[in-house]
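COMPLEX REQUEST
Ligand: calcium ion
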Amino acid sequence: MVRMRITALAGGVGGARFLRGLVHHLQRTEQHGHRAEGPDGGESPGPSGRAGGLAGGLGPAGPVELTVIGNTGDDITLHGLRVCPDLDTLAYTLGGGVHEEQGWGRAEETFAASEELARLGSGPDWFRLGDRDLATHIARTRWLSQGGTLSQVTARVGQRWGLPERGVRLLPVTDDPIETHVVLEDAAGGERAVHFQQWWVQDRARTPALRFTVAGLDRAAAAPGVLDALRQADVVLLPPSNPVVSIGIILGVPGVRDALRGTRAPVVGVSPIIGGAPVRGHADACLAPLGVEVSAAGVAGLYEDFLDGWLVDTADAPPAGGGYRSGLVVRTRELRMRDALGAEALAGAALQLALELR
Ligand code: GDP
Ligand code: CA
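STATUS: Structure written out below.
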C-alpha cells in the first residue's frame, strides 16, 4: 500500500540534485523506521545501505511513491537522434550515473564518436555528446521509431537506471514533441528564432532574448499519468529548477496548471534564485524578457495561483525580500546544495513544510 504520493516537476541539474536528495531523505527516514514526515536535518550520515535494504523500503509497493514530471522543451534532434537533456539528467542523477561536478552527462565518459563526427564535418560542433550518453539517444530514437511513446521509452531508460526500485516514476510532461525556441533580434533589426539549446549552450544566453516560444505546445497533451499524479498527490514539490525554461514549459502543457490549481495537495517550492542571482545557469536571462524581477519573490509570483509554501535562502529573508502574496507561507533556510547531504537536508525541509501545510 502506498502511504504517501509525492509529485515533483523538474528540469535538469537543479531539479535532479534536489530530487536525489529527496530520495535519500525518504530512504533514511524509512530505514530508521520513522514515518516519512519525521523531521530529519540530514546531519548524520546514518547507516549505509545494506544490499537491497535501502531500495527495498521504497519499492513501487512501498510507502512512498515519487512521480517526477520532467521538462521536454529542451529536447532536440541531433545527428538524427532524439536527445532529451532534462529527462536524461534526471535518470542519470537518480540512478547514480551522472557526472557529479558537471551535473549532467555520464560519469567516466569518453567522446570518441563526437570527435569523429567533427572530423567528418557532421555538425553541430557546439553540442558534444559522450559515447555512453549517445547509447541512450540511439536506443531512444530506435524505440520511438518503432512506435513507442516518449513515456514508454523514458520508462525503459528509467529501468536501466533502477528508478522503479527506488520508488521513482519518471514521466515526460508530454509525449508530443515540443521544443523551446528563443526569439532574438537579428542584425537587420528583425527577429529570428533559434532552438533553446543553441542559445543556451553556444551563445551562453548572452544575446538578450525577446521572448520564448514553444513549438508544438498548443497541440501537446499531458502524458499519461501526469495530470492524475498532480491531482492525486499528497504533496507536490517544485525543486529549484529554472522557472521559465524548465518549470514554465511544464506549466504550459495544457491541463498542468489547472491540475496544480485544483489539487488538494500542498504545493511547496524551492527558490532557484539566491541573493538576486541564479545559483548556476542563466535563469536571470530567462526572467528578463518576462519582465520578472530576478529574486525569490519574483519567481514565487510566477507560481502564485497554486503555490502554498516557498523556501527562500537566508539571504532573501522577508521582509527584505518581501512582495509575497498574502497567505503564502515563506520559510527561510540555507538553499545552496553544496553536496549530497545538503541536497538531502533541503529536500527534507521542503517535504516537512508541505506536510505541515497538509
Ligand atoms: P537545467 O535544466 O540543467 O538548467 O536545470 P534546472 O532547470 O533543473 O535547474 C536550474 C536552476 O537550478 C538554476 O536556475 C539554478 O539557479 C538552480 N540551482 C542550481 N543549484 C542550486 C542550488 O544548490 N540551490 C538552489 N536553490 N538552486 C540551485
Ligand atoms: Ca534543461
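REMARKS: DSSP finds 13 helices and 14 strands in the chain. Residues 35-61 have pLDDT under 50 and may be disordered.
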